[in-house]
Design a protein that fits this description.
Blueprint lengths: L7 E7 L3 E2 L4 H7 L6 E6 L2 E8 L2 E4 L15 E7 L3 E8 L2 E9 L3 E11 L4 E4 L5 E5 L4 E5 L13 E11 L6 E13 L4
Antiparallel strand pairs: 1-8, 1-9, 2-8, 3-4, 3-6, 4-5, 6-7, 7-8, 9-13, 10-11, 11-12, 13-14
Length: about 190
């Protein structure tokens, strides 16, 4: 396994924060391509989702610990895919959002980083979700894709994040300007 990062270039548009004026479920229903995945953090836990032909399929209710999708409980939400992300967050009683779209706009250096999600055993769930369990504490979550994995055979789910780099014009110092989720995927253990 290599710990080096590969810096690449991409044209990217980043919007500034806007107040979400629609109820979040109505806003969500209008979001489609280029988004494929959903990750929401609520006061009661996380919700995973996948965009299908019939709309968003959510992990709500697949486990006793899977919270329902309720706007008043929402802390943040990310819709993401290979080329874009819409990020919604709570500030007091209001929700705000911003988007990142690769393909046009300002040129940025970037690198992708892979995060390993917890879950060492899997069990099929409805709507092609998989319940991943980890540890004696009974940590469980329902990811929005199928995984067939024997008990204790690694951690098969990955979350890919893209980091956009900005350089100071005078000093050349680099910093991460913005990050977004890019992919959620099953993977084979290396």
């Amino acid at each position: 396994m290599s710990w080096q990062v590969t810096i690449q270039k991409v044209q990217t548009e980043m919007t500034t924060a806007k107040k979400l004026t629609l109820p979040v479920v109505d806003w969500l229903a209008k979001q489609g391509s280029p988004y494929r995945w959903l990750l929401a953090h609520t006061f009661d836990g996380i919700i995973w989702g996948r965009l299908d032909v019939g709309g968003w399929q959510l992990s709500s209710g697949m486990l006793p610990s899977s919270p329902q999708f309720i706007q008043a409980e929402l802390l943040e939400l990310r819709l993401f895919g290979a080329t874009s992300e819409a990020y919604v967050w709570r500030d007091g009683a209001d929700l705000y959002y911003r988007t990142i779209l690769d393909g046009s706009g300002v040129s940025y250096d970037y690198y992708d980083e892979t995060y390993i999600l917890w879950g060492t055993s899997s069990k099929p769930a409805k709507n092609d979700f998989t319940i991943l369990s980890d540890g004696a504490q009974g940590l469980r979550h329902a990811v929005p894709f199928k995984i067939n994995m024997p008990e204790g055979n690694g951690r098969p789910a990955r979350l890919i994040m893209r980091h956009y780099i900005e350089r100071h014009k005078e000093t050349g110092l680099a910093r991460i300007k913005m990050s977004r989720l890019q992919a959620l995927q099953p993977t084979e253990e290396e």
